[in-house]
Amino acid sequence: MEQQNFLKNKTIPKTIEEQLAPRMHDDDKLLFVIVCDLTAKANYGVSALAVTRTRYIAVDEELDGGVLEGNIGDIENASVKRMYGNSQLRITKKDGTKEIPLRFTYSVATLCDMAASFLNAVSGGEDIDEQIGIVEATYEKLLCVCPRCGRRLLRPGAECINCASKGKIVKKLMKYVKPEAPRLIICLILSALSTFLALIPPYITKHLVDEILPERNSRQLIVVVVILGCSYLIGVTVNIIRNYVLRVSSDRMIKALRNDVYRHAQMLPMKFYDKTSTGSVINRISGDTATINGFVLRLSQDVIVQFFMLVGIILIMFFMDWKLTLLSLAPVPLVVLGAKWFGRKIAPFYRRIWRRWAAVTSVLTDSIPCIRVVKSFTGEKRAVKRFEKYNEEWYNVDIQSARITTAFPAIISFVITCGSLLIWAVGGHWVIAGAGISAGLLVSFISYTTMFYGPVNFFAYLNDSYQQALASVERVFDILDAEPEVSVASHETLPEIKGKIEFKNVNFSFDRTKKVLSDINLTIEPGDIVGIVGTTGSGKTTLINLLMRFYDNYEGEILIDGKNIRDLDLEYYRGQIGYVQQEAMLFRDTVFNNIAYSKPDASVEEVIHAADVANAHEFIARQPDGYDTMLGERGIGLSGGEKQRISIARAVLKNPSVMIFDEATASVDSETENLIQEAIERLISGRTTIMIAHRLSTLRKANKIIVVDQGKIIENGSHEELMALQGKYYRLVEIQSMSEKVRASKEQENFD
Amino acid sequence: MDRIYIDGDEARFEIREIPRLDVYFYNGNVIEDVEPRRLFPVSGGNKYVTLLDKDNKERAVIRDVSRLIPESRKIVEKCLEEYYMIPRILRMVDRTEKFGILKWTVETERGIVTFTIQNRHSDIKIFYDGRVLVRDSNDNRYEIPDYRKLDRTSQNLLGYDL
Known about the structure:
Chain A has 22 helices and 18 strands.
């Protein structure tokens, strides 16, 4: 068994292996093993399902005899029953008997789903090698943890930042640090100067106390005071210059990093956004880049400065008196350990405060934007009561945490003071006893001791900020390292696009585990108006996504005017297609700029004409600011239909060869639908047009209708042909004409 | 639409194939092959249990399982127990955190288990009576009936996340 090459989700426990080994035959290759986490009676434990080319073997000590074995060929149906917090693999055999070979938590449910599909497919006579491809893809998809440290990765196959060599991370970050090297070096020099200047005053204090004051030397006193004043003045000036230069290079670094991340984010394929929320990408560009920048500065500046400060102070202290130095170092372990302990103790309090505060803000974000609902249901008093309750809880937790947050820094400072007291006590005794230590040296020593704890604290907290920065580095480099859209590099174009579109044997699946489109063969002639209909989730939009080249990893070919779309320049190709979506996406910009987005160099009259064609000009002209109306601002709320007409105007201006409408009129009333429909009809004349429509009445102009169901084209023809066929399309039309009648009469009623 | 509520002794339940059952009303009506599901699995326990047929259509609702006749109550409870697995956490064995992801090892009435929690804010819910509901990164659920009654070590470990 060990020698065989089979798939497994984790190391197979010895007890399972002992049961499986004697059941393996050389002529029946083991394909995969799923190690599960529950026993038959729903207790935590180990169980497993092993599948060979012809058999399945379940191992679980709570099964009768510990093992359940069967032939795949005997299976009538295998399914996964998903329950609450646990699932079962259920098998019905051809002789009618039923068995439950496996119980498991959701942790392995995806694998068991795959196993059930595999068993069904193989028992149904499908090609076993093709099925193994799906099995491999499912296992691969689940390899979302680092094999070395077990840490969950952002996506399958992503590099684990925890295990990546630190040198590699530094090398990646150096790209942004290098251009700033001259400025950073200047900052370092200035920092060294500033540190040096900071170390002078305590040293001078020694002379002041030991020599100048006892000797009552006024002249020297003035000289020393002037020197001290100058050193402070120079120190302040140096710090101002240093902080400014540092801010400049910091801003330049963060600017470069943000530009890079944003540029990459724009070029990433849709499949990246399928797995990563847009909010998360925005956070990475705004928040994580700032965290990284802060940490880079900490590493490139503060670590060096604080280190030299620490070494400098210790050297001076040793130079002054080694015995007192050792004495002053005594509280260091206490301070370091205390800072660590405090960090650990205070974190839960911050979390608790955050939790309670989140509850308070959730009441705010719920009730303030929904104030109309609150008022209409006279819920004001309830809202106030709820808010006060959560606010009270926040108050209680905050007060609790205040005890530790206020006490601890005071305790630490007390420990440091105790260190100083110790030096005062011992050192003072030595001064009085005349043991070779002067009063000035003691005063100066105390000053250095206080300064010494700054760098100590800095290094005590460094690891925490390192861990925090590392998480940000991972998220940012996930974008920077991701592959951009494939053929951005191709520059091939066509002299003119007539609009003939062909799908040839197209198959597609998002993650290879389930086919979303199967055997799509379709020819659309130039100027055709094609309607795509089908129930939700049937694959209509996916078909359009492939045509738009949002995904390129499909099998088969999609041709435009006989040319494979994958061979065309992506920018050029998308430039030939006008795409109007169900939800009109408008930018926070003027109406003019929103329309001109598709053609930035469009003249004013071109934009007005486009708006006119889209039935948008009239309502735009009615706005006080006309085409200068800022969208998204207070009071400028356009209706869904108006927004849609602006997005159609955008498509008109683009003057594309191919038009795609993805349920463009799905969320508007009948009257607006007519206005939009009118605009669409003007727009599509003479162009190849593809319309996805939920409302079949919008397809009245279509000369070809395609019915998609479960990823396959099941009907294809004109409206009349499909009605005569009395298939799926016929049934959809029947259902809709009934609901349309109801809708029309309701609208009429409302109008009356 | 009239909903059939089952209050107590007007119906008898018989097991079909766990977790499916048949309901025989004393007025002669029969509902066959239904599966009980909690309408309030988080807050309501065994109150308001819906009975769904094979097409997931509701056929009746049990108002309170504890008020059924004892044999029927046992049958319904057995079906619910089979369907719902929310292990009760008896003790915290270990808790670690790295990069914001929590790893808990806990002792439950079904044995010891280790799981990860992706988001401590949304995946750990604390109720006012001390009850804590936890969802792991694979969507499995766990429950602490009252975290204030756990041993000192467990409370200390939980203190980081609650």
